[in-house]
Amino acid sequence: MASGGLQLLGFVLAFLGWIGIIISTAMPQWKMASYAGDNIVTAQALYEGLWMSCAMQSTGQIQCKVYDSLLKLEGNLQATRALMVAAILLGLIGIFVAVTGMKCMKCMEDDQVKKMRMAVFGGVIFIVAGLAALVATSWYGNRVARAFYDPFTPVNTRFEFGSALFIGWAAASLAILGGAFLCCSCPRRETSYPPSRGYPKNAPSTGKDYV
Fold first, then answer.
1. Which residues 6+ apart lie within 8 Å of 124 measured at CB?
2. What is the span of the domain harbouring residue 103?
3. Structurally, how many domains does the chain consist of?
4. Strands (E), the chain
5. CATH code where residue 103 lies
6. 118-159 pLDDT, tens per residue?
7. Is residue 83 included in any domain, yes or no?
8. What is the DSSP string of 85-116?
9. Which of 35, 27, 52 is nearest to 148 (CA)?
10. For the packed helices 75-101 and 112-149, what is the interaxial angle rounded to 10 degrees?
């Protein structure tokens, strides 16, 4: 019963992590313009994401522009896109696989070992999806930090971490943690005992007794 609760908890955490990965991928606030300079006064906030760049006016109006061409984008941005999309697809596959192996589902009830292995396999897929999202967000954040501390970067073009990065880190952690909980439901191997040996039969008496 305890393993069933741990399995359900793992699935819920992994599912929430997958939802967070989708939200993080769609958000335009992967990096935001930094106003750390002394004499910088601006009436708008600038954001850049994986798919578009946005400008929010002081009045609250937001204007976004989708990136025109895929071929004109930097290779790092394209790789980040690919990793996040791969994490979403892997998470979707992990959901179907893990649901099949959940104890509360009636699928594959005739073979409990295979059913539990499906849950473990779904957990592994969630872990891989979380790692892909973690690599993508960390890689992107590292590039933002390096450009921020680069002395050759103009002050008015420096960016800081956006809220989408923090959501991505939290979502990736949830997916990895939930996948680990699902893997904890791995069926234990039953100890195999050797077949019991019967006692040797007494040899037929030859009529000779030795003292």
1. 179, 183
2. 4-27+74-184
3. 1
4. 31-33, 44-48, 52-57, 62-66, 159-161
5. 1.20.140.150
6. 889 999 999 999 999 999 999 999 999 998 887 777 777 788
7. yes
8. HHHHHHHHHHHHHHHHH-TTS-TTTT-HHHHH
9. 35
10. 160
C-alpha to C-alpha distance for 39 and 154, rounded to whole angstroms: 13
HSE-CB of 32 using CA atoms within 13 angstroms: 15
User: Any idea what the Cα angle at residue 78 is, between residues 76 and 84, rounded to 5°?
Assistant: 105
Nearest-10 crossing angle of helices 112-149, 2-26? 40
Could you give phi then psi for residue 26, rounded to 5 degrees? -80, -20
Helix axes 112-149, 163-183, angle to 10 degrees: 150
Note the pLDDT tens digit of each residue in 153-184: 777 778 889 999 999 999 999 999 999 999 88
Question: pTM score, two decimals?
Answer: 0.80
Q: Assess contact for 143 and 59: CB atoms under 8 A.
A: no
